[in-house]
Amino acid sequence: MRKIQFFDTTLRDGEQTPGVNFNTKEKIQIAMQLEKWGIDVIEAGFPIASQGDFEAVKAIAENAKRMTVVGLARCQKKDIDRAYEALKDAVDPQIHTFLATSNVHMEYKLKMTREEVLASIKEHVGYARTLFEKVQFSPEDASRTDRDFLLEAVQTAIDAGATIINVPDTVGYSNPTEYGGIFKYLIEHIKSDQEITFSSHCHDDLGMATANALAAIENGANRVEGAINGIGERAGNTALEEVALALHIRKDFYNCESNIVLNETKRTSDLVSRLSGIPVPRNKAIIGDNAYAHESGIHQDGVLKNPETYEIITPTLVGVSQNSLPLGKLSGRHAFVTKIEELGYQLTDEEIKTAFKRFKDLADKKKQITDQDLIALLTDQSREESERCKLANVQVQYSSGGYQGAIVSIINEAGETKVASTIGSGSIQAIYNSIDELFQQKPELSEYEIQAITGGEDAQAEVRVTLHDPTTKQDFRGIGIDFDVLQASAKAYIQASNQMKEQE
Ligand code: KIV
Ligand code: ZN
């Protein structure tokens, strides 16, 4: 069977989703989970983009044990040098250089002629090759590039030392027949003494990203790029979990295998969803809550007689545990630590101490603490630790008619407590007005979602908000988890407000 390499770009292209901002600690957490999931190559970021990106790529390069760690670089010497600085200590470093080759990009964005583009590819791939053994080149907007020129650009990159060629469908314009055809054409026509790895990189603007990636594999691609839960620029990237499962379930057709540890899929998806603040739609393939639910009587009857009647994927295959043993208020520290290790967390003694206290507080209010509760608690804790200003207290005065009042206090970076009190036409509005006053900001609340983390009356609430800064036109997301909905709403808003403040 042919081995397909999985290249994850959740932390680079995935982070280009509006409003998604992972901090370094979260990036390392996601990277470590991706390594556990079996990812072969991780694109950890775009080192020249910011100091934060540089540090995150460097930290992942230092922490990854097995995966190849990649940094993105434009065809510019300063980008390549910066990527080298960030990646030089990785076990297996790789650079990913790119330059657009479609007419529309060359004429309007780059303002470069074809000759200039070819010269830049030659110069910069050649330079990258002096620093890196593994050089990947992407002709950006490849699917809208003239075939002959695409071949010329790819051949130039190979001649200059690239051994990995990625073919981006940058704007999600292609379809499986056409996209697969590009791979067939390039593989048939390139000349090289070395083995060249062809990689697919699809966007989902027309909903064809997974189908296009699979068409690329059918036509000779040995590497597939994408992001967990399909997050990314505009409609997102190929959802890697979909490709992994398609190759596994339909090995009879694709005759390919991968290193993906399938039963880590759900955990990986949950982590990315939580840290990105982007919920997974219930009906999402592979990892949506309804993916294994059978509603109609005929289906239920069939599944009871033989699951294969309506179930092509078993929930356990992707790590959807249906009746994992919950903890309760009598559970001790040992059971707690064993459970969090089982869930894939590696915490320091200090973090365990804080988490155990939070767990006990929650267990006082909630009878059974499920895996989802624990994951939520740990994610919340890790987010809060990195926040500049933290929520100290919320007090709401509710009256069934007229305005509501809220007093909110926060602890700022200097450790001082700041208090604000305001009114609003609802309790949440009153809380949010107080937080705005404390942060001295006036964002627009463009999204507010609330859901229960588990079933039952004593479920914890998870609130997700998106704040829009009308001046910079940027979005900031926040998630708050708490037993109380008002407290969860305040936490989510403070998290997003902290991010907005950091951009000032
Ligand atoms: O979609 C795209 O073209 C990209 C490139 C940087 C590879 O993300
Ligand atoms: Zn992309």
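^ 3-methyl-2-oxobutanoic acid complex. The chain has a mean pLDDT of 93. The radius of gyration is 24 Å.
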